[in-house]
Amino acid sequence: MTVTPEEKFQTGLLLDLEPVVEKELDRHLSMAKEWFPHQYVPYGQGRDFDGPLDGEPWSIEQSKVTPEARESLIVNLLTEDNLPGYHRAIATVFGREGAWGTWVNRWTAEENRHGIVIRDYLTVTRAVDPVALERARMHHMEAGYEADHGESFLHGTAYVSFQELATRVSHRNTGKASGDPLCEQMMARVAADENLHMIFYRNLMAAALDAAPNETMRAITDVVKAFQMPGHSIDGFLRKSVVIANAGIYDLRLHHDDVLTPVLRKWGVFDRTDLTGDGDKAREELAEFLEGLDDAATKFETRREERRARQAARKG
């Protein structure tokens, strides 16, 4: 079997970065806090549903969370549901041996708690239609998950560096917008996990930048320009994402200011002096893209404020 130059490069990079993975894994385990999903679910509010138990059917009046948060909670949970696909994708790239494999399994175990606690909360509190939620889960998982950049280690690690932070922001803001203090507490707990995951990947990517600056810079730019959340294949995702953006839970401004900018600043991509050739070209592309994204975010904010002003005027 012939080994391509790209495969040889990736294998060498994985070997070079294993000490970094060991260090970051130790740091993660020292910082991660044990917590239990059942402690965030108000089981005392639960009652039987219709079906074999002949309970009370779900109706929209039973939901205590805001409509915008309800849409966001559904998207967030369905995204978490595709964990088997994410595990396969990351295990394929990182492998199952040594510190790489230990991290993959630890990350998967922590992520699994998120789906458990959110689903239990939504079901017990009757926050969403459980039948529609289960049908959406089946549809979403049947669609499967494929990483946008295949089995590229650099592209995959760049993606999760941003995606974990994006998920943290979305979870945290969903809780704040829910109108339920318990939901906010639960989502803050989930977001804290996502933040630690982001730090692991961000620090790993920083080491990759030092080891292979031009190739890593190209991967970062490719990922930023084509970035989409892993739940983009959810049925009705576009409509839901518009509702979420209009509510300020996750929008272009947050994506630019609170996700892309802080990670790129931490990596010091615009201050590096070791980029040449395609690496330097990729950085120029990135700067141009960020400028356009900033302009688009400003336009979206302006239109949103105009809509809100019109709605307030009509109500007045």
What does the model show?
The chain is built from 11 helices and no strands. It starts with a helix and ends with a helix. The chain has one domain (5-315): Ribonucleotide Reductase, subunit A. The chain is 73% helix and 0% strand. The radius of gyration is 21 Å and the shape is globular. The model has no long low-confidence stretch (mean pLDDT 94). The relative contact order is 0.12. The protein has 316 residues and is mainly alpha-helical. It has helices at residues 5-31, 67-81, 83-94, 98-124, 130-143, 153-177, 181-211, 213-226, 237-246, 252-267, 277-315.
CATH architecture: Orthogonal Bundle
Structural class: mainly alpha
CATH topology: Ribonucleotide Reductase, subunit A
Number of domains: 1
Radius of gyration: 21 Å
Strand content: under 5%
Number of strands: 0
Please give the alpha-carbon distance between the first and last residues.
72 Å
Tell me roughly what share of residues is in helical segments. over 70%
- Give a quick account of the main beta sheet: strands, pairing sense, barrel closure: none
The CATH homology group name: Ribonucleotide Reductase, subunit A
